[in-house]
């Protein structure tokens, strides 16, 4: 009984089973300060090195990880396997299904909507990364020149859109992008004198630019924060050395700052591209819960998955499309990692 | 016509900058130009939010009359009032009983709080085990975690939906809290923070007879408080703003959360009285904003700690 008590008290659930002994013993030890000294410690360590204690030490990490392991098996491993099974079936709602083999994938390969979705999403990924990266880096460079309180205030302001959820941003920008009274068109009209009646979300060619613009507003500060943190950890000694050697601002940036930023740039690009391929909430809120934009101009891959699985009720086709998206994201990030690694190798 | 004027203005500005002697340019012009660009960017970022506040408080009749707020002399009961909020909070009769906007606020608060609490406990426990406790298969567990982070969550939505239909947990809060009660990202974040704690402290506590759970609660958790703060904020924001899960797993009107309800309200008011759902949006972004202002330093540091070596 004492052994068990010890084992469980070392797991921390002393009060549960017989661990009361262990607890009182510890209190006694604290009650006699003289025995807390180093003389006592080896003796206690010896006492703890019995078998039950070793067992407790072995089991503790697994107990601490148990919530993760259990929940992940239930809500990650199982659904992942299930998604593989479902992808081979045609379903109608969650309760009826027919085995169709690879028919779902064949259907996806020739479905114009799916192709349109893949095209739109790729367009968004290129557009948003291509716009956001230089802008975020530029802002970070400018902000790095400002010091003290002003810097932290400006950083806070530029970062602030990020705490508004995508869905709320979508709702807000749907109104901001409206013709005539929308703020975007009013600003455009004030600057250029035209464009007050632009129907951003009603013109097929303008839907994706509108989504890119919205995500720019949302994420430029987020990416900037990463660049700023990286800029502030650039080796000051190298910068000073470059200045002493008479390097110009541009040379310093090109040959000292930029190489130091490479890992963060790679990180930001990969994270933004992966995020771009999972774009869903922003266009959903911009275009309304039942609408994919004129001529499906706002349809993204994930919108396709959700539409097929939950609006048309074909969980099988939805899972198949989900697998295609997952593989696509995996391949794109592998290619990016490979590209950046090769460039790094040739330079070093 | 005005495009031409704009072009001239830009060209004039460039010429003006070029006309300044090089020495002065470096000393004065650069900081001013930097300040100007940063201020412009800040205005561009802030103006939608200010516009949102204005739209929420403007009366329906003057919604489109003024771009932002009405001028101060027109500032009275008929232009600036709480009519949008009053309409928003008006009780509605549905199949699931009378609900009001306050119900949805409470739902969101409840879900975000429960998820954050569970995540904090489970992720920090897991992170402690991975950082400081030796056990066989640790590398395998961590590799598995990195693997789970690479799979897009949307792939799992359909099977999880099916799972909850079969276990009849659909349309309950169990379906929302259980899958998001713990995450690989949080565990790895806490592992990173806990690795920095010196082993000597933990060994000393162990020799003095402290249990592993005691070490976790009394030594580790107080030492990683900044990480905990950042992590709580992140999780709270994630849960508060989550849309996909609730939109698929919840069905009864009285259980919905703010993102779902607001996207429904957009359809209901259909850009005629957009002040009403913008008032709701304003209320929905306030709690995260307050939390963020309180914790922003820790948040940004926690966010970038994984990506940037300080």
What's the helical proportion of residues of chain A? over 70%
Radius of gyration of chain B: 26 Å
Distance between the termini of chain A: 64 Å
Would you count the extended β strands of chain B for me? Answer: 2
Mean pLDDT of chain A: 80
Task: Work out the helix count of chain B.
Answer: 14
The share of residues in helices of chain B is over 70%
| Averaged pLDDT of chain B | 85
Order of helices and strands of chain A: HHHHEEHHHHHHHHHHH
Strand order of the largest sheet of chain B: 1-2
Shape assignment of chain B: flat
Q: Spans of chain B with pLDDT under 50 lasting ≥5 residues?
A: none
The number of E-state strands of chain A comes to: 2
Strand content of chain B: under 5%
Strand content of chain A: under 5%
- Which geometry of chain A do the CA atoms define? globular
Features:
heterodimer, A: 348 residues, mainly alpha, two-stranded antiparallel sheet, 2 strands, disordered N terminus, B: 310 residues, 72% helix
What would you note in describing this structure?
- Chain A is 75% helix and 2% strand.
- Chain A has helices at 2-11, 20-31, 40-48, 51-86, 103-110, 112-145, 148-159, 166-176, 183-192, 204-232, 236-244, 249-277, 281-287, 301-311, 315-347; strands at 89-92, 96-99.
- In chain A, strands 1-2 form a two-stranded antiparallel ribbon.
- In chain A, a hairpin with a 3-residue loop joins strand 1 (89-92) and strand 2.
- In chain A, 39% of the residues are buried.
- With 310 residues, chain B is mostly helical.
- Chain B has helices at residues 2-19, 22-57, 83-89, 101-132, 138-150, 154-166, 174-177, 184-195, 199-207, 212-223, 225-241, 244-249, 258-269, 274-305, and strands spanning 92-94, 97-99.
- The model of chain B has no long low-confidence stretch (mean pLDDT 85).
- Chains A and B meet through helix 1, helix 2, helix 3, helix 4 and helix 6 of A and helix 1, helix 2, helix 4, helix 5 and helix 6 of B.
